[in-house]
Amino acid sequence: MKNFKTLILFALIFVNGVFSETPESDLKNPKGEIEIFVAVAANFKNPFEDIRVAFLKQNPQIKITMVSGASGQLTNQIRNGAPVDIFLSADMDFPLTLFNEGFAENKPKVYAIGKLILMSQAEKNKTFSVQEHLLSQNTKFIAIANPKTAPYGRAAEETLKYYGIYEKVKGKLVFGENITQVNQFISTGSADFGFTSLSTAKAKENHNLFWKSIDRKSYTPILQGVIITSSKESRSKDKISAVYMFFDYLFSKEIQTILTEYGYASAEE
User: Fold this and answer.
1) Do 24 and 100 fall into the same domain?
2) Angle at 173 between CA 1 and CA 74, to 5 degrees
3) Are 86 and 147 in contact (CB under 8 A)?
4) Parallel, antiparallel, or unpaired for β 222-228 and 86-88?
5) What average pLDDT does the segment 84-96 reach?
6) Quick count: other Cβ atoms within 10 Å of Cβ 6?
7) Is 219 in contact with 130 (CB distance < 8 Å)?
8) What is the pLDDT of residues 148-157, one digit of tens each?
9) With the C-alpha atoms ordered 258, 260, 262, 264, is the resulting torsion angle positive or negative?
10) CA within 20 to 30 Å of 145's CA: 45, 201, 207, 223, which one?
11) Are 145 and 215 in contact (CB under 8 A)?
12) Pairing mode, if any, of strands 62-69 and 22-24?
C-alpha cells in the first residue's frame, strides 16, 4: 500500500510539474515599463493576483512578475541569487532568517494572518469533528504540505498533535511540496482530506467543496510576513520607487478588502 501511495503521488507531481519555479507574467504593460519580481507563498497566490491587477490599473507603467511556491523553497532561491524584489512568505520565520543573513532591506512586516481548514472533494458529514473525519476507516489519505518548507504544513502537523491523533494518522499522511499541490490532491480525490488555507475555500472554483474550520488554538498563528530583498545588482531610482510603492500598497485599505474576501485577517484586526 505504501508503494502504491508513493506511485500515485509521484505521478501527480510529474503530470502537474514543479510549482515553485513557475513564473506568472500574463499581464502585459507598455514598452519602457519598470518590472519588479515578487515571490509569493503558494497559499497567497489567488489573492495576490487580485492585488496585482488592482495595483496595475493605477500604475500601468509598472510590470509585476510573480513566482509562487513553498516559502522554504522560495527562501532558498533568494539565497541562491534569484532576481526577487519582494518576498511574501507564509510565515515570519523565513523572511526573518533572510533579513538576519543580509538578504533583506527590512525586517519582515505582517501583511496577512492565515487560517487553516480541513477540506475534501467528496461530500462529508458536517456534524463530524475533525478527529472523527481523520480517524475514520474510510479515510485512507490525508494531504498536508511539507512541514519543513511550508508553514501551512507545519500548522497542520501542530493541529494533529494538539488533538492527540498524530501517531494514529501518521500512516495516512501524504505530502505536497506546497499548498498548491495539496489542493490538487484534494480536488482530484487522490487524498480523502487535505489541510489547506481558508483562501482555497474562498476561491470560486471551490465553493461547493466540503471544508471545516480548524480551531485556531490548535496551531501557532500563521503570521505572514513580507520583505524587500537586497539586490546584488543596483536598482535604478525608478525601480526602487516602484518596489517601495508596491510594498506600501500591500497595507492600503483597498488590500484589506481583498484579504477579507479570501478569508485572511489583517495585522490591524
Assistant:
1) yes
2) 125
3) no
4) antiparallel
5) 97
6) 11
7) no
8) 999 999 999 9
9) positive
10) 207
11) no
12) antiparallel
Domain of residue 19, residue span? 14-113+221-261
Both 247 and 119 in a single domain? Answer: no
- Number of neighbouring beta carbons within 10 Å of residue 88: 27
How far is 18 from 12, CA to CA, in rounded Å? 10
Enumerate the H helices of 59-165 as residue ranges: 71-79, 93-100, 130-135, 151-162
3-state secondary structure of 210: strand
Identify the CA nearest to 40 among candidates 95, 81, 93: 95
The residue with cell 476561491 is 203
Q: Which grid cell sits at 34?
A: 519598470
> Does the annotation flag 179 for ligand binding?
yes
- Whether residue 209 has pLDDT greater than 80: yes
Residue type (1 letter), 135: L
Of residues 22 and 14, which shows the higher confidence score?
22
Residues 93 and 59 in one domain: yes
Give the neighbor-by-neighbor strand order of the sheet with 34-41. 22-24, 62-69, 34-41, 86-88, 222-228, 109-114
Cβ partners under 8 Å of residue 19, min gap 6 = 42, 68, 69, 177, 178, 180, 181
Residue 213 among known ligand-binding residues? no
pLDDT mean across residues, the chain:
88
Q: Looking at residue 33, what DSSP letter applies?
A: -
CA pair distance 189, 209, nearest whole angstrom = 11
Number of folded domains in the chain? 2
Q: 64 with 52: CB under 8 angstroms?
A: yes
